[in-house]
Amino acid sequence: MLYTITFNPAVDLVMNTDVIHLGELNRVKRDEYVAGGKGINMSVLLKRLGHHNIATGFLGGFSGDFIQKSLKEEGVQPEFVDIDAITRINVKIKADQETEINANGPVIQEKDIQKLFNYFNEVLVKGDTVLLAGNAAPGMTSDHYVKVAELCASKQVDFVLDSNKDLLTACLVHKPFLIKPNAQELSEIFNVKVDSIEEVIHYGKMLQEKGARNVIVSLGGDGAVLLTETGEVYQSSVPKGEVINSVGAGDSMVAGFIAKYIESGQYEDSLKQGAASGSATAFSVGIATKELIDQLIKEIEIKRIGG
Q: N vs C: which end of the chain shows fewer Cβ within 10 Å?
């Protein structure tokens, strides 16, 4: 079974207008509500690629109800811990200048954290995959991420992690199956400036030495580099298209990679679908459709550059 974890999900209220006048009444031309969160994005894309999965984390209040309803409409099974608080709402203003106002989110109580760990302790079995994406919610620390990684290792479950440098590096000792830093995060982890593919490979291998089994480094317009636990290094190209919205592109890359790897066990095919999935979401309003992913896969080239 595939599980995703989003510790601090959100409802994104997206408001579109021509111009914002601060200090005055503004009216929008169009608004929409979107279930947000990196793990939630992964769940949606996994399902669109044909993989049943269970979305977990913490939800509460009317906004939490909206997220659960949205996931069910996508065919994703929600198994969130119900908290006595309202899931955050972020405001995204799309006008002459884009403005985002992100809420902190509710403080997660230790009793609710324990409920989630108890759930995973009961349901996880060898061969499952857990994807943990995003940053910690208020009330949580890196110890909670490490505990998830440790539980997955003890259950022989593949653990996939996409988070900030501190949370990511804290979990490396438990040998996550896949991590996905971008070039900037790679620079931050090692306190260097990573400019070249050779440097990406060098520092990616250092992450493997610290425990990561497979490493994808996303490079924006330069594609992505994959370092495998069997020693190969691959680079993907980028398809042509107009970037509409980069939100969720990295999440889609990871989900697309994992979906194909579960099916084939082949790294090249998995990187190709991951790259196509990330680009497809970047070229879309919201998370990509399978149809667009299948179309872009034909444009992706994978070359072996090491190993």
A: C
Q: What residues contact residue 25 under an 8 Å CB cut-off, 6+ apart?
A: none
Which residue among 12, 112, 162, 251 is the active-site one? Answer: 251
Q: Write out pLDDT tens, residues 148-166.
A: 999 999 999 999 999 999 9
Average pLDDT of the residues in 100-114: 96
pLDDT at 195: 86
- Listed by start position, the domains of the chain span 2-306
Question: Does residue 65 have an active-site annotation?
Answer: no
Kindly report the backbone phi and psi dihedral angles of residue 120, in degrees, each rounded to the nearest multiple of 5, phi listed first: -65, -35
pLDDT at 246 (0 to 100): 78
Protein fold of 2-306:
UDP-N-acetylmuramoyl-L-alanine:D-glutamate ligase (3.40.1190)
Specify the 3-state DSSP secondary structure of 24: coil
Enter the pTM of the model.
0.94
